[in-house]
Amino acid sequence: MTTSTHPTPSPLWRRWRKAAGRSALMWLIFLPLALIVVVPVLYMFSMAFTLEANQLKFPIEWIPSPVTTSNFVKIFVDPQLPIVRWFTNSLWIASLGTVVIIFLSTLSGYAFARLEFPGKGLLFSLLLFSLMIPAAVTLIPSFLLLRDLKLLNTYHAIWWPAAASVTGIFLMRQHFYAIPVELEDAARVDGADRFRIYWQICLPLVRGAIVALFIFSFLGLWNDLFWPLIVLSDRAALTLPVGLIVIQQGSYVQRGLAFAGAFIASVPVLVFYAFFQRKIIAGITTAGLAGR
Amino acid sequence: MTTTALPASISLSNSRRWKTLRKQLPNYLFVLPHFFFFTVFLLYPIVRGLQISLFDWKIMLKEQKYIGFANYQALLNDKMFWEVLGNTAEFMVVTVIVNVILALLVAVGLKHKFFGSDALRVLFYAPGILSVSVIGIIGIRIWDTQIGILNYFVTTLLGGPRISWLGDPGIVVSALALTTVWWSFGFPMLVFIAGLHNIPEQLYEAAKIDGAGRLGTFRHITVPLIMPTMLFVVVTQFIAHMQVFAQPYIISGGGPGNASRSASMYLYETAWKFFRFGYASSISVVMAVVMIVVTVVLFSLMRRRTEY
User: Fold this and answer.
1) What does DSSP say about strands B65-66 and B55-56: parallel, antiparallel, or unpaired?
2) Which residues are within 8 A (CB) of B172 and not within 5 positions of it... i.e. 6 or more apart?
3) For chain A, N or C: smaller number of CB within 10 Å?
4) How far is B189 from chain A (nearest CA, A)?
5) Contact across the interface for B130 and A223, Cβ inside 8 Å
């Protein structure tokens, strides 16, 4: 209906009307789903600015009256809830982990796509095999190891295990494969060694995949709850997701505070998402399809 | 003639092999950095986890007691373990099925551009970038009996009574699953949209010429040709959702009773609340075996279906 292979001679307004009709129909179908997606998030925003006393009101007060910042003030002044510290912890861990993952994955991915060495096939099957093993098996031994190394409650406890992840290698390997070999041959003739070829020729050509890996790794580390919950217990060492659980479950059953915390944890990623949505969607699709 | 030439050729090929090996040696530098972390935090823990599961491992003990397969034997008779495994399977099945159907239908709708279709795509993925902790905090209030969002609409729009969603053992797992769908259907949707664009447009045109309706086209062209993408989505979703932890941990606390306690949650509590690391390790090994077996079965089942 919409994809006509022949340019139709019909006047412009008729085609426009057809497109408008289709758009209206699609919106009619998708509007309920869009509302279901949006309403809970808006509810969180609203509750973050609602007085503690009004949190339990029913029917729900969708627009807080009065709009208050008292929940935020309470979090920021409470020494038991060092949310700024949690924020910087999260930022550091996610940034450090992401840089390491990108560095290791591009190096390894390049080697598996382009370089020859004895044992390459064996090593690659080992990586493939590890994909089958669910994280549950590695939790306890990794925890005990980090405890013996006295690394619990540090950034290392999170980015070291993250550096072992193999999905980035498969993503990068696939994209290094797609680079024409002639390009590298030309560089080799010009006297570039393999590290320069990797760094100066090939890396810039897989920028799209690196962006995808960056987004995936960063969001994954920023949002993760399970592993940080296991290896971080000192109040000052927590990441934001674990901190939110502390606010939610600890002696702080104040409802407004949890929503203010959720607001602080969500707004940066939502703003980031709004700005780079095109890149992020493309990146997710790239990374998602790489698994096939 | 051949007897004299042979040693020479061997030594020649040997020196050539030695030469290529020396040339290839620096290539190890590319894989070594990752391999270090991979060995320490993936390979070693897998082996170590199997080993720990054979001990009565308690964290405060200096000497751990070897007990063979006693943990596994205890696990077989552990009613709680089978219950949480059942809960997890139920959660996984509901989440994966609803996620896949919803994501595919939305992807079909968003495949061709219309006014605002890109905005909808961005919107539908948006919850996926939020932390599961945030999803949990919101989720508590979605399902709350007294002041929940859902009961707000049930009472005001439908005039019904308040429903105790999380208090009902028959509903709670589905409630957690639907919260997860809300959070995560955007990812399979994006993958499906990309997969749909890979289906040649000529096929649809040919079907139209043959007089196929929309439903027929969907059934006979879209569904079979999206199968490889479907396999990828189902397997990744299966692996992800079998390990569910945070949703029951935050939203329902595993209750009422143990009705929504998941396998990962049981593992977490066994290890980090009761410090029975040996028993917890055996839980993780059984989980892994179950997941590997199901993954292999899924692969072979769907491979057969995709061989058109």
Assistant:
1) antiparallel
2) B165, B166, B252, B255, B256, B259, B260
3) N
4) 10
5) yes
Question: Closest Cα partner for A238 from A44, A70, A72, A80?
Answer: A80
Which residues in chain B are closer than 8 Å to A132, comparing Cβ atoms? 292, 295
Decide: B267 and A226 in contact? Cβ < 8 Å: no
pTM: 0.89
Asked if B123's CB is within 8 angstroms of A164's CB, the reply is: no
Residue B60: per-residue pLDDT: 72
pLDDT at A289: 64
Cα atoms in the Cβ-side hemisphere of radius 13 Å centred on B21: 8
- What lies within 8 Å, CB to CB, of A105 at 6+ separation is A168, A169, A171, A172, A213, B34
Nearest 5°: the CA angle A199, A200, A204 is: 90
* B109 CB within 8 Å of a chain A CB: yes
Question: What's the first-to-final CA gap in chain B, in angstroms?
Answer: 57
Residue of chain A minimizing CA distance to B184? A37
d(CA A287, CA B7): 52
CA distance, residue A84 to nearest chain B CA (Å) = 17
Please name the residue of chain A whose CA is at the shortest distance from the CA of residue B180: A37
> Cα(B152)–Cα(B160) distance, rounded to whole angstroms?
10
User: In B26-182, where do the E strands start and end?
Assistant: 55-56, 65-66
If one compares B6 and A66, the residue with the highest pLDDT of the two is: A66
CB contact under 8 A, B182 and A36: yes
Rounded Cα–Cα distance for residues A167 and A135 (Å): 13
3-state secondary structure of B303: helix
DSSP per-residue letters across A195-239: HHIIIIIIHHHTHHHHHHHHHHHHHHHHH--HHHHHH--SGGG--
pLDDT digits (tens, 9 = 90+) for A113-170: 988 899 899 999 999 888 888 888 999 999 999 999 999 999 999 999 999 999 999 9
Interface mutation vs chain B, best among A16, A105, A106, A140, most B CBs within 10 Å: A140
Q: In this complex, do A289 and B35 lie within 8 Å of one another by their Cβ atoms? A: no
Beta-strand ranges (E) seen in chain A are none
Amino acid in the structure at residue A29: I
The minimal CB distance from A26 to the residues B114, B193, B246 is found for B114
| CA end-to-end distance (rounded Å), chain A | 31
Of A33, A38, A141, the CB nearest to B49: A141
- Output the CA torsion sign for B218, B219, B223, B225: negative
Nearest to residue A138, comparing CAs of A216, A224, A227, A218? A227
